[in-house]
Amino acid sequence: MKKLVYIIQTPPFWVKTPPLALFYLKKHLEKKGISTGIIDLNHTIFNLGLYTPPQWLGLDETFEKNLFFIIEKKFPSILSNLLSEIKDSQFIGFSLFKRNTPFALLLAQKIKQQFPSKKIIFGGPQVLFLDKANKLDPQFSWIIGEGEIPLYQAIQNNANAISRFQEIDTLDTLPFIDFDPINLTDYSHSRSIALITSRGCTHKCAFCTEKNLYQKFRHYSPQYMIDQITYLIKKYQTTHFIFTDSMINYKNTWLEEFCQKIISQRLNIQWEAQIRIKKHFPLDLAKLMKKSGCYNLFIGLESGSDKTLKNMNKGFTTNDALDFFTILTNASLHFEVSLILGYPQESETDFNQTLSFIIKNKRIIPKIAQINPFIDYFADSNDNSTPSKEAINRVQTMINTLKTEKIRYTKRFINNLIY
Fold first, then answer.
1. Closest CA to 382 of 125, 130, 65
2. What residues contact 308, with CB distance under 8 A and at least 6 apart?
3. What contacts 24+ positions apart, CB below 8 Å, involve 173-176?
4. Strand, helix or coil at 208?
5. 8, 32, 41: which is closest to 22 by C-alpha?
6. Which residue of 33, 182, 238, 320 has the fewest C-beta atoms within 10 A of its own C-beta?
7. Residue 93's beta-bridge partner residues?
8. pLDDT digit string (tens) for 285-323?
């Protein structure tokens, strides 16, 4: 009998683009001959119109814990339809993030009640935290880290287990993704397709949890990315792409080849990405990025204090950052920066240095994209670290300063990582 798998994205989760990871998993399983369906339950429930985007995307622990029961009571047909759709499947997968975990766990229990023989497999970043807290229920399978290899093995072995960090060596061996069977126009950012150019991160910023999600860094080749993009352009008639991995500029040579291929093959795309501050970044490369269609970059500046940057293990100084910003500006590249305030051992002097750095360089920093107080996600077993009052106050001081100095910032990404 041919195996049938359903992978489900539960709410609340990002709603502007499809759940990207699920489509990478789907294509990998289909290449192995396993029929795979995707259910974006997050999108279905958001489209009920019960909540506005700010309500849906804003952190609210009570909302997240109660959402399953609200849907079960007010819209029972949604869950009954899902149970009907998956009835012939042998395996059910869930992608866990902090916010959608309560809903996913309750739905998994409901599925088990109706279909005791179905095998349920959990992956996603939150599994790492559940493992640390010794909360991995043995009646399910759990995947920590990248999903393709262990998900396939879990399906083949048909036994509950915990898999840790089984990573693909060469990303170019993976099939191209598309977004069948969903309709991209149902998403608010349907003009833009999200992709990744790499997995993992070569840098170990002290505050970042991503370094715990992968054991090694790997890049798709420039030609693979060009072929993937060309395929999606033809299939969806779109020319806007968002690269969501940690940094587009792991190697200058990779980025240069990628941009040159975009230009030489006349793809005429528009793209944005995250980029890391690097010393001696070539102006010619920045201009090449602009020519290839780059219209926006997200940069993790985090602090304007050299001492704090060192404590964060960022790998650059404020002078390096200013030089980098100058190069991007001279290439007419738009960029936005993020800030983390109240980092451990950040003194009032350090914080004032950050304020001064932003004010002094406001003409060269187009926008502040995100401001949050420092959060230690591994602070306790419940992953509910609370930022200090001092850190929260510094965020407010920064906002007041931005208003006074008429510096642009994104309001919805202020304190968006804390409850």
1. 130
2. 302, 343, 345, 346, 350, 354
3. 174/24, 174/27, 174/28, 174/148, 175/27, 175/28, 175/30, 175/31, 176/27, 176/227, 176/228, 176/231, 176/232
4. coil
5. 8
6. 33
7. 7, 121
8. 999 999 999 999 999 999 999 999 999 999 999 999 999
**The two structure tokens encoding residue 82:** 């899902």
The helix (run of H) or strand (run of E) holding residue 154 is helix 148-157
Residues 6 or more apart whose CB falls under 8 angstroms from that of 353 comprise: 304, 305, 306, 318
Of the ranges 129-138, 255-264, 300-309, 311-320, which one carries the lowest mean pLDDT score?
129-138
Mean pLDDT, rounded, for 241-251: 94
DSSP state of 405: T
**In whole angstroms, what is the distance from residue 232 CA to residue 241 CA?**
10
Contact status, residue 30 vs residue 36, Cβ threshold 8 Å: yes
Amino acid at 162: I
Strands, sheet with 367-373, edge to edge from the N-terminal-most edge strand: 192-195, 240-243, 270-275, 294-302, 335-341, 367-373
Query: Can you tell me the distance from the alpha carbon of 363 to that of 290, in angstroms, rounded to the nearest whole number?
Result: 20
Q: Which residues pair with 143 in a beta bridge?
A: 163
139, burial (CB in 10 Å: exposed 0-12, middle 13-18, buried 19+): exposed
Residue 184, both tokens? 């991209």
Residue 212 to residue 183: CA distance in whole angstroms: 33
* pLDDT of 2 over the 70 cut: no
Residues in the chain: 419
User: DSSP assignment, residue 184?
Assistant: G
Residue 385: per-residue pLDDT: 67
Please report the DSSP string for 265-329 in residue order: TT---EEEEEE---TT--HHHHHHHHHHTEEEEEEEEE-S-HHHHHHHT-S--HHHHHHHHHHHH
Given a cut of 80, whether residue 204 has pLDDT beyond it is: yes
Lowest mean pLDDT among 181-190, 292-301, 335-344, 362-371: 181-190
The CA distance from 247 to 316, in Å, is: 15
pLDDT digits (tens, 9 = 90+) for 60-106: 999 999 999 999 999 999 999 999 999 999 999 999 999 999 999 99
